[in-house]
Amino acid sequence: xxxxxxxxxxxxxAACQAPPPAMNEAEIAQIEAEVLQWAEEWLDSxxxxxxxxxxxxxxxxxxxxxxxxxxxxAPMRKADWFDWCMGPQQNYRGYTGSWTETDVRVLSHxxxxxxxxxxxxxEHADGRFIxxxxxxxxxxxxxxxxxxxxxxxQYSNGPSEVVEGG
Length: 166
Prior knowledge:
This protein is an alpha+beta fold and 166 residues long. It has helices spanning 2-15, 25-44, 51-59, 78-89; strands at 67-71, 74-77, 92-108, 111-124, 129-143, 148-157, 161-163. The chain has one domain: Nuclear Transport Factor 2, Chain: A, CATH 3.10.450.
């Protein structure tokens, strides 16, 4: 809950900034499309692979300069992501799923908020398949030198169920 409050505070700070240069509908639509493409890459980074490959794929989609996650009372920077990711990912062999609902709110030429609901299945290292019909991810996505990168992440998984063979 503190993480969500911190994220809400960040959004409030962003909202109180001087307004960005006016954007026309075409510019907003282009940014929305770019962020949605980035979000597909983010979800695809979890598809079945080794934990090392998964964490490396995640790392490539994180903003190079900013906090990426707040947990345990402290911010986690990009430099810490791989080691953190390798912990829980040792239990998984990949994720297969898709976004079932997405929304992008463009904040400026260089920032947008992405909210997505995914439905999918995690394959566990012990052979179990756990389906999450509803998982939400809320992310601040910022422009990087050549694309977009997640700079803040909050997620919540709904109830899960064990399924046979994925």
